[in-house]
Write a structure and sequence with these properties.
4 helices; 0% strand; mainly alpha; 67% helix; binds fe (ii) ion
Length: 169
């Protein structure tokens, strides 16, 4: 950990432990976004069929947003005197977003996206709680990102509802 020059708020010496804990949470968030980018690229290319097009277009847009989130988390890690981890530290977790057996299985993709977004919402809600009263800048940033993830989740829940209404899910 580098020596800090400012001595108030999250940069204060007495907040060092909290700052390091927040960096750990941000590293986890960074990896979640990176893995989501990988999963959404694959799932925006693999699906077959007329019905897949809406999902493909939606995921193509999300890839850019999730990449932007990863960059924001990386920058915040640096601002808190952390170091953005290298790729050898990456450990995958999105078993539910692996390619389905059949590439026309759009429901598998929709459910996987909902699970990924739900996981992100859970983790970011925790970051917002852990930064409360300690690091309002990280809290603000993560609140805005949480808003994006809620929008993604709601959109894909709508897709799922349509498939359910037609007896396809
Ligand atoms: Fe994201
Ligand atoms: Fe998202």
């Amino acid at each position: 950990m580098e020596q800090t020059t400012a001595a108030t708020g999250i940069y204060a010496d007495e907040n060092r432990d909290q700052r390091e804990r927040i960096i750990g949470l941000l590293e986890q968030a960074y990896w979640m976004e990176i893995e989501t980018v990988m999963s959404y690229i694959a799932n925006s290319v693999n699906p077959d069929g007329v019905r897949a097009q809406e999902i493909i277009e939606s995921l193509q847009q999300d890839i850019q947003e999730e990449l932007g989130h990863a960059q924001q988390f990386a920058r915040r890690i640096k601002e808190l005197y952390g170091v953005v981890p290298g790729s050898m530290d990456f450990a995958p977790a999105q078993s539910y977003l692996q390619p389905p057996a059949e590439q026309t299985d759009i429901v598998h993709v929709i459910r996987g996206v909902i699970e990924a977004e739900t996981g992100a919402i859970g983790h970011y809600t925790r970051v917002i709680e852990e930064t409360d009263g300690v690091d309002p800048v990280t809290q603000d940033m993560v609140t805005a990102i949480l808003h994006d993830e809620q929008g993604h989740k709601r959109l894909f829940e709508g897709f799922l509802r349509e498939y359910e209404a037609e007896g396809l899910a």
